[in-house]
Structures are given as structure tokens and as C-alpha cells.
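Self-study notes.
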Amino acid sequence: MSAARAAYWVWRRELQITLRAPIVYIIGGLFLAVQGIAFAGLVSALSDPRKPAPLGALLEGQLAGTLLTWVLQLVVLTLLGMRTIADDKRSGGWELLLTAQVGEGAAVVGKWLAAVTVYALLWLPTLAYLVVVGIYRVDSGGWDLASIATGYIGAIALGAALLAWTVAASAATTTTLVAGAFGFAVLIGLFLVGELPSAFPDLGIDHPSLAHVLGALSLRGHLTTFARGELALSSILFVVGVGATGLSVAIAAACAGRRRRTEVRNRAVASLLVGTIAVLLCAVAVRHPVRWDLSAKGRNSLDAQTRDVLAELPGPATLTIVRPTLGALEPIYDEVRRVADRMADAGPLTVRTYDPAALPGGLDAAARAAGVAPGDLASNGGVVVELGGRRRVVDRLQLVTIGRDAEGTASVESLAIEQAIAGALAELASPVPVTVCATTGHDELPLEPAANDADWSVVADRLGGDGMTIEPITLDAGVPARCNVVAIAGPTRPLTPAEALAIQAFVQRGGGLLVAAASRPITSPSGSGTTSTTLASTGLEALLGNAGIGLPAAIAVDPTLTVREIPGALLVVDGYSQHEINAGFANARATIWFQPRAVLATGPAKPLVSASAASWGERDLEHAPPEKNADDLAGPITLAAAWSGKSGRIVALGSAESFTTAVLHGAASAGDLWLERAVRYLAGRPASTFEVHRRAPDQVRLVMTSGQRRAVMALSILGIPLAWIVLGAILLVVRRRRTS
């Protein structure tokens, strides 16, 4: 008979024998108990009201499993395969089979197919898990049937590939126990090799190429890919390669002792060749990834705009993922890593993952770039995007929106991972040139480091790092045409009328003006031999007044916003108005305003940053502590205001000292980031925009009482496995009665 017919005959014969053996139902019960343990853990995570529901497809957590469930599952595969040939060799049935016009290849393939069929049947009872989820599910995410189907098919296919190696171990010996030990050693070795990058995170940092190779061998990784509804060519070739190589080795082992040494040696060489071809094909597939996204929502695909950005990058970029110290955020950053890896497959990106303490360049520098406190970046994580010597830090608030569901449980409302990272890359790849001209000659705060950190050097570094050109100028000959923005940083001597006219002409022809008033009091002798304290004028009062902006001689005081470590400073967290400068600041980034002057915003001028309703503008600069009096300005006091005309723009700040190195380095203030946004607004050249729709996360939320949770766990770990064993016992009894 032909090899195909012979293999089919062996498959039917072996399947009938296997299904009559009590051991297969015991093995099936063990397998279902292992899957029940994994499902019980998944139910616990999906129904925990203290944590957000895990991200990912329904079967992703189930099939990914834990180290324990994987070890037990490999034990089940070993038990299914170790008896296939070794028992027949010991009893003499193997020789009888081969004399019935069946070759070694057909016999091995037939027995392997029978074991695969039994393994596939063992997965059928796990469909009950979907029923349980359907009963207790409260989210409206729907069922991703394609992902469920690919998850099951992938699990069975991977199991079939691994069974080929246990069959090979069975063919190499006549002792079942030896076959089991050898087969399990092969399977656990293959599993552990793929787990090395997860077990040793530093491996990906010190030896990224090696970690990438080991990751391509991860059984868990390939199965998770299938569970997400993604068919990756590398995963398909991996499964086919492992299975084909295992079967080839099994056939060669089955021929040993029966065929001439030359033929056995040729078959061994052929097995080596099959394995080599499989490795080469997988390497090509990993290097040139091809994927098919079968998920219902296309969660495994990048947006077309993202691909365009990656294709147009001027050079290699680096994404450094800062893992959060808050364990509840780990699932979010697992998704961040998956998105980053997909982007790395589509463009010249290198993806790294670090703990906050080991972050290159230091956590403080990354937190400064993000405009958040170092502790917040460490606990919430983020992504450092670097390209061409420039960097952006994407924090957790930009990556994901977390809210509360109807049950009051924390839940991920939307994901903007791709949008945030691709937007940062687009901004770094296409810098918008801006020239900032800083006036001198009026005792302004210097842009270079100065004594007591009374300078704007941190601001200058921020603007320069963002690709802006910073140039000191005098106004003797007016404002140079190359200037996009003129910055006046805390002058204590007012501009002359001629200089004020030059600034006015600059604004009228479309320029941007940043006026940061000096809030440090000036003490001068009075005519009666005493001294008086006042605040310096800018010399631009008429220009600002025409724009509806005033800078009265009053200091903003707010008992509710005081900073104990910095007397006179106000900490603003939610006092930001709706304006493009303030995007991403409200309740997310704090700015410290050191003894800020009150800013009046009337008519066309709009407040940007304000103190609370409890604030007032203190006019008495002579006596301390400040007290609210009838002649003080009523709150809420504006700390910064903006005006936009038909051509130019103006931003007025009540305190240049709020942006000095002493304040920015001495406290958790995102003032330099806020000022960089203000300069871009004034230049009329905002950062590159990138619109990718936020995605609704794949989350399943179960609502269960503790009793229901215990009942489901008992059903999955004990009930379903026992039902399988009882069903097997009933079938065996019925068959024996029929035969008798």
C-alpha cells in the first residue's frame, strides 16, 4: 500500500487502541487539571476589583500560563508520546506492524497523528471556560472569534510539534520510562531556552542580538501570538520546523537496528538538513517579518500613518521603556512592549527595557524631560524616545487613560501607545526651526549658569535640545528679522521708549513676544532718607496694556498652594486654562511659581495659569507676613496670560524667577517644559501633529462573588477533569460489555 494509506491505517488502528486504554483518560484528567489551574488564575485576575482587568485577547492569559502550568503541560505531552513506539518495541508489536507492508516512516507518522488527535480531543472540554466567561462577563467588548480560533489551533499545532519529539524519544528506546525522561528533557530544554530573556532582563540590554534569537524560540511567545489573533510567518515556520525535524529524527531512530548503517546515517544527515533548513527559514522570517492580523479590531496592526513615519525616519531611533514600580501597571507596559516591537519590525528602531534605577542617563534627567517628578516616572513608567541626539519622554498619561467602570473598579478606558510614540518620533524627525532672541542690557536673568543658580540655563538647555536656536540680542538697531520670538527674562531696568517701539513693530509684523516680569523686589532710597520696596517695570506697559495685559505691583499669595520648602512659592497642578500651551498639564504636571506677580488679563487677553479662588494680589511689599486687605487684588489671581492678534502673539509671565535653575532643579516643576510650549506657540510653529485614533483596549471584566469564584475554580480544577475521567470509565465499561 502507499505511504499515505499506510499512515492512515496506522492512525486509525493506533487511535482505537489508545482510546480503549484507561491511561489516556487519566492523562486527559491531568491535562484538564493543568488547564483548570491556568483558567482559575485568569478568572481571579479578571474578577479582581482592586486592579484593572488584564489587557489582551481572552485566551492570551489562559494560553500564556505560568511556569508551573507549562511544566505540567509538557509532562502531559511526554506521557502521550512516550508509549507510542517504545511499548510496541518491548512487546514485539513494532516488528509485526512493519511486516504488514508498513514502512518505518508511515508507522511513525501514523502513531504521531493518533497522539495529536487525542491531544486535540483533550482541548474540547476547555470550551466550557468560554461559557463561564459568558455568564459572568459585564464588559461590552464582544467576542473575538477569530482570535479564539487561532488560539486553539495554535495551541494544538504547537502541541503536535512537541509531540513529534516525544515520539522520537519513544522510537529511540525500548523502555517507556527512558523514553519519557529523554522526551521531557528535550521539551523542557526547548521551553527554558525561550524563557531566558524573561528570566534575565539584563540579557536584552547587554546582548540584544542573543536575546532576540532566544525570544524567537519562546514557546510561550509563539502561543501568545496565536492567542492574539495574529498569524506570524515566523511562528508558523517555527511550529512546522520543530514538528518536521522531530518527525525526521523519529523516523531515523525507528530505522536504527533494522536498516543498514549507511541508510540510518543518511536519514540522520537528512534530519540534520531538515533542522538546518527550518532554522534558516525561521531566521529569514524573523529578520523580515510577515504577519496576518485576524483579530476583530485589528489590534495587531500599525496605522498607515505610523508606517509612513517609520519609513521616513532620517536615522536609527531608540525606544527605552521604563518599567513601572507599580505592579498594577505591568500589563499596560507589556502592551507597550508589543507595540514597540511591531514598530521596530517596520522601521529602524531599537527597543530596550530598563528598571527606573538602571535607566541610562539617570532617572532625574528623564523625569526632567517628561516634566514630571522622578518618583512619578519611576512608579508610573514611561518611554524615552531618542533620535538624532534629541529625546522625548512619553509618560503614562500619554500612553493610556485609566478611569473607573460602573462597578467602581479601575479600568483602562483607551490606549494611545502607538499615537504617543509615533507622534514623538514624527516630532523628532521633523524639527520645526525656531530662533529665540533673548534681550540683554536691562539686567535680565542670564541664559548661562550664574551664581546661586539665578539663571535661565535650564530653559536654554530645554529650548536648545528641542532644536531651537537661542541668540542674545540688543535692541539698539531693532529686532533682527531672523528672530521668531523675543524673550525678555526678568529685567530690573525698563526698556527705553525706542526699544519698546522696536518690540511693538516686531509684534505687529507677526513676531512672538515672551515677557517674564521680574518678581524680585527692588529696594531704593526715598527722598526722606528711608527706603521703599517696589517691583521693576518692564517699559512695555503701554504695549501690554493695548493687548489687555497688566503687570501691577502686587505679589500673588495663595495659602492653599504654598510650598513649605520654598517660601513664597505656589504649586499649581490644576490651575491651567484650556489652551494649546497647557495641553497635558492639568492634574498631570506641576509648575512652581516663585513669588509671582499678579497678571491682569482683560479683553482679548486670556489667562493661562491661575491660582485658586483663595488667592489675592498683595500690594503691601514692605511688611511680612502678607495679609489680605481691602486694597489688595481679589482672586483668583492670574499668573500668566496670553494674547493673540491678527499677526503677533504675546505671553506675559508674572515671575521670571519661577524658571530659574534654582527653582527648576530644586523642586518638581515642569516649568521649563511649559515655557518650551509657550515659545512654540509664540513662534506659530507648534510641534508636529500626529493623529492616530486611540484604541479601545481588549479587556474582559468578570463580576463574581467570592463564592462564585470558588465554585468556578473548583469546577475548572476538579469538576471538568473528573468528568473526563468518569466519561472515559463509562466508555470503557460499555465497550467491554459489548465485546463480552
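Second protein, same conventions, sequence then structure:
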Amino acid sequence: MSGMKVTRMVIILILLLLFPTAAAWADPWQDYRRAGELEAGDPATAESLYRSAVAAFEAGGDLINAGLTWQKIFRLCDRQGKLVEAGAAYVKEAALFQQAGVPDWAWEDTARGESLKSMLRLFIPVPDPGRITLAKFEPAAGTYLGLYEERGPAGNDYNRVKDLYGRQHALYLGYGHIYGPGNFVLPRDTMEKARQVPGAGLVLALEPNGGLGGLREEDLTAIARELAAVKIPVFLRFASEMNMEGTNAWHGDPAAYVSWFRRVATIMRREAPNVAMVWNPFDIVQPEGVKATALEYYPGDEYVDWVGVNFYSDYYLSGRADQPGAGLDPLQRLDYWYRIFAGSKPLMVGEFGIAHTVLSPGRADVSRWAAFNIRKFYRTLPLLYPRVKAVVYFDLNESDPLYTQAKVSDYRLDDNPEVLTAYREAIAGPHYLEQIGQKALGTYRELEDHMAIRGAVTLGAAVKLYDPFISRVEYYLNGELLGSPTSPPYQLTIDFNRLPGEGSLVVKAYDSQGREAVSRAFTIYGSAVPVAIFTLGQKSYSSNGQVQEMDVAPLLENGRTYVPLRYLALALGVPEEGIGWDPASQTVTLNSAGHILKFYPGREEMERDGRRETLDVAPLNRYDRVFLPARYVAEALGYRVTWSPARQQLLVTRE
């Protein structure tokens, strides 16, 4: 027999070699070409064929063609209005091109793809930010408010900022220029105005406009000594946006840039101890593999105190109608840099603005979009990015004659009432700091599945949808809707002392049309101690921690859990003599703690202290016992009922 088995195995192996499986026979290119033919007339079938082809490409390790096929799926889903699926397809496309070493192949789809990505994350407040080594001038918690106000209404007197915007700001941005050896200009007026604000500091963007070859250590030493004489904290953004090709004179030679940044840092530490060095690239809307090229310019942790990043939220990117930017969440622009650096450095948003008026490709008022995103950015930032410790808003209209770059957007705060109100409200919270040296009282941590939570906790949600507007976020605890906040960061206070043991928390976000767009479910553990526990199908139950026995078990009927009324009443403290049954009128009476409750098997009503109330189901008469859903009795006597689907248990706690 053993010889026959060996022979059969050999034959099977030969057949497998001669006749491959159906998957091996499949030609992904046949599906790919057929999908291309069907895209216009039968997009659903085309998508299915593309997905079949991409599965084969991925299985064969063909990253390039898998990425190209996901690109087809992304664009096809986008055209069909299947925005969630399109966003997921873009994520696959970008990841595969990144793996294949050609991240720029996703560049054309980046703006739209990033717009369609969906995300929902929950956060809870914590008093301690954890153990981190603080950098120079870094607050333990909180974010410094910063402003570029040279062309704004408080440009002549920064002490007016609080009256205008509701909060004083801790940082003021100014620009310095080095045009060549011995030829440099510092923003001395800005420096003096910042010095006049109690507790304020200066953000100095020092630009070597004459190129790195025009720098001299003696000039940098003179600059350092002048900054030291100001005697306020200075955040020095030396040669910012070095990763921007074609827009500055210091891009293109990473080795020279790193060398000069290190020399500047060394000089500042020797001559100006009030200066913190900020390495500050620009976030270009590109795949992450392309963003990473900026890291070639990183001087090293030893020479960098803070990492900054500049970006702007424009309704159209670079003023191009074919590059809409309205769906890009400004918070997304921080994500890559935060993941790379937050473990070692505090981050600063060195320049930032949200356009309320489009100047190019055609003038348009987008105030509602701007106001929504200003509120969302400032209110959600503390949750997502607690180590972003400074944000500098760029209060400028790019049509200003003194602004020499592309005139695309108007970012001003004061000239638009809707935007001004949004900004004042967004920065009003205690997380935002008005002086260097202040700190907030706490920070946030992300809610994790299977987390234990005690007491009343205010949850907040960071939400990103394919729709730039979010209508509401709903919170459900064990299936019960607790609330639906409508404004970022969609906070809701939940008392987890009312949750005994394990529970289900489900959070749903809805787009501007009221459609559910994304949801997440968490298993959590509350801190309430159950007074009673009944388990479906089991004749034992728990009452105040003691196991008791019943002659019947809780049962399930029409999707509802019914418990035997007598044992429920005993578990909730109703004395034996307080439980009565009148067979003539078919009435159960409970008399406890000054309340009289009456129930009638087969009738959808009860009587509470003489008042009739309607029930959604009638008590049942089974096995010579009366059964009913526990909440009717529990809530009438001051208790709360929770259902644990995982354990099939009904838990009763005190209100």
C-alpha cells in the first residue's frame, strides 16, 4: 500500500507540472486590455477585470504594473463617484510605486487621491504628555500661537493683536536677507515690535538670497550678535524651503546646505544662546517618496532644535483649475513630517494660511470652506499632533504689491467676518499659548481597541473624508446613540462609570449630504461595578457579587433578551414580600423603595406608581414564569441596563 501511495504522489506532482492551476494559466494582460475596452460603456465590469488583473500582478511581484492597474481603478472609481473606493485605490497605487522605487509615478494623482482618503481616529485627554526631552523653548504641552502680521491691521503695534483676534500671540515672523558678503538686512522693525510684547518671541526666516556661495562666517557672527542683543527667544529658520526647486538660490546642493546650516548653528550657539535653530522645508503636494528627498538637506539632530514645515491651503493648487485643492485637509500636510520627526524634535508650522478668496485662475469667494478648515485645523491639531508646538499664520493677501511670488490666494484674517470669527473661536482654547514659557495643562492620546476607561471622559474625533465638509459624527455605546456633535473636533463626554465591564463603542462620520462615510468600532472596558449579571441561556446569575441560581434561564425572542421577572426583582433589592402575583387579573406587582410597579403578561403596558406607560414589547409567560426585558424594571427603580454582545450578558448598574 505504501508503494501505491508514493506512486500516486509522483503522478500528482507530474500532473501539476504539466497542467498548471487556473491562476497560473490566467493572463492578467487579457483582463487589463478587456477592461480598457469596457471602461466607457460598462465601468462596473471594467473595474472587476482591473481588480482581477491587479491581483495577478501583485501575486507575481510585478509592482510597477500592479501600481499602474490600481491607478486605472482609482481613476475609474473617481469618475463613477465611488469616492471611498477611489481613495482606497489611490493608497494602493502610491504604496506600490513607492515600493517599486518610482514614487513620482503617482504624482499626477496625488492631489485628488489625498483628497479622497478617509480617516477616523478617536482621542482622549491625558494630564501627562509622557517622557520627552524638551528642546530649547519647547513647552511641555500646548502650542505657541504665531503670526506674520507685517501687512496686517496690527502691523504697526503687535500689542493690538489680542484685541483683533481674541488672544495675544507668542511668536511673530519676520524676514532677513543675505545678498552677498557684507550685505545683509535684518527685520529690525519686526524685531523691536516683537520685543515690545510681553513674553513674545521672534521667528526669523533668514534667506541667503545671494546663494550659499555668498555666505561669510563674519557676517553670520554679526547677525548672531545682533540677535543676542534683542534678548528675546528667536527661532531661526535658516534657508527655509530648501527642497523647493526653482524658487530659491539655496536649492540643489544638499552637501553645501548641510555644511552651512551646521556652521550657522555653531555660531548661534556660541554667540546667541537665545536662538533656537529651525530646519524648515516646504510640504509639496507629492507622494511621500518624493517628499523624502528633502531629507538629503537635513543637517542632523545635533544641529537642529526644532523642525518646521511650511504649507498653504489653496482652493486650487498653484492657481491651476485642473489641480483642485479644496479636498486636501491642511492637517494632512503635517502627517509625513510628524511621523519622521516627532519622536526626536518639536515641530513648528513655520508658515501657514487658508485661502478665503481665490485670485487665480479666477476670483472666487470660498469663505465657508476657509472658515470650516480654520476651525478644524486648530481644534484637531492638539489631538493628532501634540508635538506640533508652534503654528505661525500668514496674514497676507498675495495680491499685495510687495508680495513678489505667484498671486494665487488671499489668506487675510481681518477683512472677512466669517473667517475672523472662525479664527477667534479656533484659537480660544487653553491648548494655545500666548507667551514663550507657558504650557498647557494636558495633552491627548489615541483611543485603542480593548482600552479600559474610568470616569467621565471627553472623546474627540479626528476625521478626514472625501467631502471637505462633515455634517456630524455619531457616538454609539452598546447600540445606544449618545450624541452627534457637528463641529470639529466632534467632542462628546461619556461617563464610563456607567459601563460595567466590556462594551462596544461605535463612531460614525457623515458627509455634507448626510451619508455615512466612515465608521470605526472599539471594544472598551468601563469602570462600573454591576449590581446584577444575567447570562443568556444560563440558570445562574450574579447579585452584588454573589452567584445565585434560578429555575429558568434568560431567553431570546424576536431579537430581544427576556429575563425572569422574579429573579431580576430580587437582584435589584425588591424583597420577597414585595413581589406579588394575582392569577385572576394576570398581574405582577413589585413594591420597593416607595415605588409600585405592575406588569401584565401579553399586554404592552405597565403601571408605575399609578400611571400607565406603554411598552414596546409585552411581558411573556413561559415555563410558569413571567419574563420581560430588564430595562423596564431597572430604569423604574433607578438602575441602568447594558448588553455585552461578546459575553451574551445583561449587566445592571446603578444610575
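Instructor comment on the second fold: Confidence is low (pLDDT under 50) at residues 1-25.
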